[in-house]
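Why run this: before we spend reagent on co-expression, it is cheaper to look at a predicted model of the complex and decide which construct boundaries make sense. The entries below are exactly what would go into the expression plan.
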Amino acid sequence: MTRLNARDKRSGMLPYLLLLPVLVFAVIFKLYPIFYSFVSGFQFKGAVSLRTYELMFADKTFWNSVSVTVKMNLIMTPLQIILSLIMALMVNANLKGIGVYRSVYYLPVTISMPVAAICFSMILSYNNGVANTILGSFGVPVQGFFNDKTQAMACIIALCTWKGCGYWMMFYLAGLKGIDDSLYEAATVDGAGYFAKLFHVTLPMLRRTTLFVIVADTSTNLLLFAPMKLITDGGPRSTTDVLMYEAYRQAFKYGNYSKGSAITSVLIVIILLVVLLEFRMMADRDR
Amino acid sequence: MKTKKILSRACLIAVLLVLAVIALFPILYPLMSSFRTDQEIYKYSTVFSVNTLWPVEWTAQAYLSLFTEYHFARFFINTLIVVGTILPVSIIMCSVAAYAFTFYHFHGQKVLYTLLLLTFMVPGEAIALPLYQVISGLGMVNTFSSMILPSLANGLTLFMYCQTFKDVPDALLEAAEIDGASWLTCYARIVMPLCVPTTIAMCLMTFVNEWNNYLWPLLAARKDEVKTITVAITAFKEENVIHWNLIYSSSMLSAIVPILLFLPFQKFFVSGIAAGSVKG
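The model came back. Tokens follow.
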């Protein structure tokens, strides 16, 4: 990473000065808040105490949020990864005008999650929503979608998959472009068909990309917030009340900042574990 | 053999088209609806027909009233103030730091680099709540500073520049230094002009990320005077549930900016994503 040359001896304090602004801002607005959330989670009515955590771990709402978060991620992340891989394989085809499809699939990524959530909530509204109008023309009765406790989570997963797949597709596309053509030629000579090549050449070669996408997608999905804030409010019947939203609700709706901090700390610990995994993977790659 | 190939091509195109419709519908339908009146949207929502999707009478009334009645110009200006400050400051600050990391050798370099890398890997949303308490301790809630300051140090920009700077030939800098050039001259005259594609990619990424930012401005800037566009349209949706065309048009207004930036500059977005994380 670093170059050794004449500049090293004469530079003195200069490199530290150049780094100073970024360091100061990173410490105040990134590192300190992380510490702060751990510390304030251990405070209860002004004194140092484990009470907040005791209360949190005894709280049914908290455990419901844990299970909703885990359930949502277990469905959503694999779904998004498989779909984006399939999409990448398709837009990697040698076809005239394939670039147009690539741009179209990426378009949902560029608009913001709140806008996407608003559009989905109106399209999927149980009351005058166009999805119900279209389904109605096939004789399907009116669906509740976000208002139905059996469908709300599925609708949020659909929304996030719609918005997210184009993004992960681009990583897979970059990975696919990096695979040496000679591997495929060799496989063709050996008489391998499309699926044999897919499973024995493409997928093994995409292992690193997949690892990265799994980690990055998981941390994105764990922090999902806008759809719950804008559409479901964690409901119906807390079926979409993920940890991130519960932390927000505790802090800003009920004014219980220490509980919000405690939930945030749990999330940060999970994210840090995911980050460390990512870090290990990067170290492996550099080797 | 040949018919099999044509058949698989046809299947591929069919699937591509279906996916394209799924990708586009949730954007195009709101776009169409934003150009019609409320009455029209309701009228054709009970029984499906072409008019459910396609406006009978086109009108830009919704867009007009967003600006005349609901002060949307204010929110646009606010967003531009925030993004317009973050963009240059963040790019300069992070590229200078990357310059120090790449072209100098100093004590604690590895530790600092690792520490920053780890810190920036924690996504902003995860620390939004504690950050709010820090900001409110500093008395900065409902100010532009609260939205600008936390976004200045940007990990992606820093590491992208580190990656790009590695490819700058050392001989160029050495020659300049023999001529007595200062670090500022080397940075501004030699290194940065060589990294224009990275700068464009990072400007675009930063712009779109800030434009689309939601959770943080929602917490930090709740007054109309400082509200940004994304927060404004969501608040607007909650307050005006019955005016569907207004909700659609405000959403489209906010979506159109990143889409218009993406279409001509696709290449830079893709390089931004690919390099940003695959390379680390």
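The first helix of chain B runs from residue 2 to 34. The mean pLDDT of chain B is 87. Bring this page to Monday's planning discussion.
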